[in-house]
């Protein structure tokens, strides 16, 4: 049985709103500690702005715990403007230091004095497990420290009464993603961006010279970065501390490399975590691997150690949103804390903000290390949590080709096609489906140009080697079209019959969803469509019912964020300038809203939230006020279809007229750059995992539906959409999603990200209503003994 870590959530019946939570009279200190990570600034900014918004005072504690111990100018009150322009900066602008003093009792006593003098009894700590453990110890000692300060006459008895309880909320900022209880730590996604950029760049030079590259990535005790980057770039071999290779691995690895060369693959990539070890806990270094490859195979081999590059650069869109959501959640947790509340960590589980007891997470994290020291490696992988375990299983599935004699032979034919507009990550999904399909014993067919190519018979078998190197390619290599199947249904049925297709995997956007419905409706006329069919959502618009996220949306968000960063930079040079930026998305406001949150925009106009001339006017007035402060630039996003009459030009002209003498305007339509580009690590990984899962479902369904020599599937649950819902990947019959869909505007009727809108407004200094019922309950890490936890 797999132990797994699934926190449970209890939903409160009564709604809670931010308006009812007040921070008046409270003081919050925010610090970043330990190694820096991209996105820490976004978290600091969110804590400061949310704190000020609810009426609390917020203090920066510079240079981590060192600043808390030294006091003086290191602890400064923060203002709204003081966190402006931080969002797009990597590292931490308030500084971080590894602090020896805080480890001593004397140091913590001085820190307590510095906090009490300023009335700070709420701490928000952004750092790794060491920093958070330190904070917890400080909290446990707090009342004792205050007693000592009263005895030495440094604070009054009254002061110690008023400040009797210290509340602590942690956020995990660590590029290693080595903290148990959280799916992603702040900085991990950005570090993956850096690694993938380097690997993509190295691949072109390696290909030119037929070289082997050995790359060392960070992760002293945790192989997450190595594992996910290996998944995301299709590396030939990966070495991580949690799963040392079996004895005799050297020979196995060399065989694998030479097989790949024989397969006309001109390069090999080996990724090594800096903490990689063998079964006897001996380090496996990059030099050792290089010497091995040169000795056994004579391949031209180079070593690249990525080092601190991984900590650098601007935070990715994902990290900015993660950190902003966590920062707001941290302030809510501090407002709701009572003296009895244990120190907690705010984190993300799937797509959901959760609070977990800090020490439970720390103990679990330490258990992983203990398991590794005691060579209980399988336990270590399990303790890392479901997301790590799934990454590992997917990697194993995709990287090692079995010899034909080892494969089960299924005699089933499965076709894969792309439908709709291109989205980055489609190719990773196709690669994953093809390889998993072959591993399961099926014959895989690729259909070119969607349903249009299908009816013309553009269908050919696709083999393991044909999809090598596909993960990092943008767009759709199979070709994709928006054509729907209904008008070509007879021809498509004929092609299904000619090629004897027993199952379909459709990877695409809203047209893929409509197409699947049409194929299902055609089952009564054409028995050829009575086969298992599944759809995986891939569209930049993220407008598919039944899934919180779709492949390609993360890459598009990064494209929007990058452009907005550049535009903001140009605007801060010219001063007093407002940019109106038009984003894609059809009628779905996901890109505009989440892009606005990641870019620190002042407003985002979307179709789902109707607006009128009064709203436009209040936005202009808001910007006019903003121009009086030190932040003399504005950014406004507009979804392409948010309103028939309030067009981008109209809004631009209105702002230009109303802003005369105060600010001038520029407009920018982002257009198709949002669909292009190399897929982000998130989209590669998401595409790979979701598609592998879809393929396994197809195999299961084929076995269930196989009778007397042929496949017959006619039930509702044999035509499904696989989507991510909150915390898990779920198969949903498309017919049941009908009621959740607004077909006219091609969007789901209910969209989870609308809950992020108030967040964007609060961080842009608008007063708004914010439903916080979703957050709140402190959960526990529960180890379930169950086989059927099928989450990502």
What topology does this entry show?
Blueprint: E1 3-5, E2 27-32, H1 40-53, E3 57-61, H2 64-70, E4 75-77, H3 105-117, E5 122-127, H4 129-151, H5 157-162, E6 167-172, H6 188-209, E7 212-217, H7 224-233, E8 237-239, H8 249-262, E9 268-273, H9 286-297, E10 301-305, H10 317-336, E11 344-349, E12 352-357, H11 358-373, H12 377-384, H13 386-399, E13 413-419, H14 426-439, E14 443-447, H15 450-455, E15 459-461, E16 480-481, H16 489-498, E17 503-508, H17 510-521, E18 533-537, H18 553-574, E19 577-583, H19 590-599, E20 603-605, H20 613-627, E21 633-639, H21 648-658, E22 664-669, H22 681-705, E23 706-707, E24 710-711, E25 719-725, E26 728-733, H23 734-737, E27 741-742, E28 747-748, H24 757-763, E29 783-785
Parallel strand pairs: 2-3, 2-5, 5-6, 6-11, 7-9, 7-10, 8-9, 13-14, 13-16, 13-17, 17-18, 18-25, 19-21, 19-22, 20-21
Antiparallel strand pairs: 1-29, 3-4, 11-12, 14-15, 23-24, 25-26, 27-28
Active site: 176 (proton acceptor)
Subunit structure: Homo- and heterotetramers.
Domain Phosphofructokinase: 28-333, 413-698
Keywords:
792 residues, alpha/beta, 8-stranded mixed beta sheet, 7-stranded mixed beta sheet, 29 strands, globular, disordered N terminus, disordered C terminus, AMP binding, metal-binding, transferase, identical protein binding
